[in-house]
Every structure is written in C-alpha cells, then in structure tokens.
Amino acid sequence: MENIKVVAELLAKFSLLDWIGLAWFLVCWIGIELIISYGWLGYATLHGEANKLRLAWGRAMVQREQRIIDSSLIGNLLQSISYYANTSIYIIGALFAALGALDQLIAMASELPFARAPSREVAELKLLILFGIFVLAYFKFTWALRQFNLLLITLGSVPQMPSEEEIEHFSLKFAAVNTCAGNDFNRGLRAYYFGMAVMSWMVSATAFIISTFIIVYVLARREFVSPVLKGLLISSASGKTE
C-alpha cells in the first residue's frame, strides 16, 4: 500500500497538460501503427506496396539458379539493422548518464524559450519513459535481426530446381518472413521518431503535443503521399501511376 501511495504522489505531480500530452502521444503512436498495418479507407500505402515487392522478390529468387545476389541483399539489410541496434545501446547508456546529471539537465531545459522547469521527480519519470521507448526500439531491432537471419535460412532451404508447387510455397514463405522482419525494423524506426517527441516533453507539455503532431504528420505523409510511393505505384505497362 505504501508503494502504491508513493507512485500515486509521483503521478499527481504531472500537470493536466502533461496528462493530455501523454494521452495524445499514446493515441497517435498506437493509431499510426494500426493505420500503417491495416491501411486507411483502401488507400495505397508504402507498407502495402513494399509487401508486394517482397513477394515479387521471393518469386524471382526461387526461380534463380544462383542466389548470391539475394544473400547479398539480405546481408546489407542485416548491416543496417545492426547499426540501429548498436545505436540504441548507446542511447540507453546516455539516458542512464542523464539520470545521474538530472539537475544540470533541468537547469539547461529551464533556460530554453517557453520552457517550464519540471520537478526532479517529474523529470525522472519523463526520462524513464524515454528510456523505455529506446529499450523497445532495441528489442524491435534485435528481433528484426533474428528474423532476417531466419530469412537467410529460408533462402538456403530452397531447392535448386523447385517444382511448380515448390515455387509458390517457398515464394510465400520467403515473403512472409521478409515482411515480418521488415515490419519490426520499421517499428523500431518509428520508436526513434516518437522518442524525439518525448525529448521535447523535457521542455514543456505544449512542445510535446506539437512535436507528436508533427511526427505523426510526417509519418502519415511518407506512408500515403510520398514520392517514393508514387514511384512504386507506376504501372510497368503504361508507365503511369496506378
């Protein structure tokens, strides 16, 4: 009971605007994840088009006699994800260091324009939330790494001269594992974006709300109306956007 009372007292130090900002943050993050995963009113998405290309890659891979190019492509993806996983560890270590220098961090944040200096307890909670986000990103990246390793195993399991049934079977299997790995990598990247919004929370709740809106706008624009999506929608037959 005493521990619950301490936690309740800590949470009571958040202002109403802080709670509104946190609720807005969670709604935006969960909402954009659902929209990207399931689409929006039938509109084409970068997520959906990338999944189509993964299936096309699988069908092309199965019918190649030499699959060195496919293993090289997966190897390049593994290097990119390893970079982000290592970076996440450095960020987590830096956040631990920031907890030890919290007074200086609060003093620095309070000097920024429109900043509202939080209490030490509130600043600790905000840093812990930020810490949790980058831990989540680390888990997503490392899980994506393992899945891309499984993709290499899937690639190695494809027979040299597959039958018609095996072509479709291994194409679908390759695309499914590739899609799962790519999705977790993208979720890790989005955690980085939303982590930046929480960083602005150290300045003020208003900055937190505005930053969250900007990040969701950027992610939605890239997913639904980005030039790369228009490029992927170009029909090979007509040369025009579908």
From TrEMBL:
It comes from the Bacteria. The keyword Lipoprotein does not apply. Keywords: Membrane, Transmembrane, Transmembrane helix. InterPro entries: DUF599 (IPR006747). The chain crosses the membrane at residues 20-46, 91-115, 127-145, 192-220. This is DUF599 domain-containing protein.
